Amino acid sequence: MNLIIQGLDIHNNDLRNLAKLSSASSIERITGQAFRLVGANQQQDISEYCADAQLDFAFIAQDMPLTYFGLFATDMDSTLLAIESIDEIADMCNVKPQVSEITLSTMKGDIGFAESLTRRTQLLQGLHQDALQRVYDERLQLSPGAEEMLQKLKAAGLKTMVISGGFTFFTDRIKVQLELDYAIANTLEIEDEKLTGKVAGEIIGAQGKAEALKQIRNKLGLKREQVIAVGDGANDLDMLAEAGISIAYHAKPIVQQQATYSINHVGLDGIINLFR
Question: Where does the record place the DUF4072 domain (predicted)?
Answer without folding.
Answer: 3-43
